[in-house]
Amino acid sequence: MAEASTSIEIPSPAAEVWQLIGGFGSLPDWLPYIPKSELSEGGRVRHLANPNGDAIVERLIAFDEAKRSYSYAILQAPFPVKDYQSTLSVLETGAGSCRVEWSGRFTPVSVSDQEASMLFRGIYEDGLKALVQEIEKKKA
Question: What tens digit of pLDDT does each residue of 127-137 get?
Fold first, then answer.
């Protein structure tokens, strides 16, 4: 199993950030790489498309509103991994600040652990940078 993770400090209340990213179908609201998300199976499966039109299908495996966290598994995607599970969390670090953490574990297919880890770390880092930009736009 390979792993990837990153986090970012955001000068916004955790509840406000969770309001933006906590919905399982909310990726298009803050992640430019995912322009479309459709939920099925009572909101437990999301069907995504990346800018190239590649299908990504993910299943919600855990959701904790109180802890502002959810975990999901990839069922179908154009990534060189299998057995992918990831968690996205918003942790309060002060009255008006929080830390967003995004991590995943997966088994690389036809690539090294390091290559797969670098791929997902880049996706997570780009995603969290886009989240900060979206929050800053909302504050302006």
Answer: 999 999 999 98
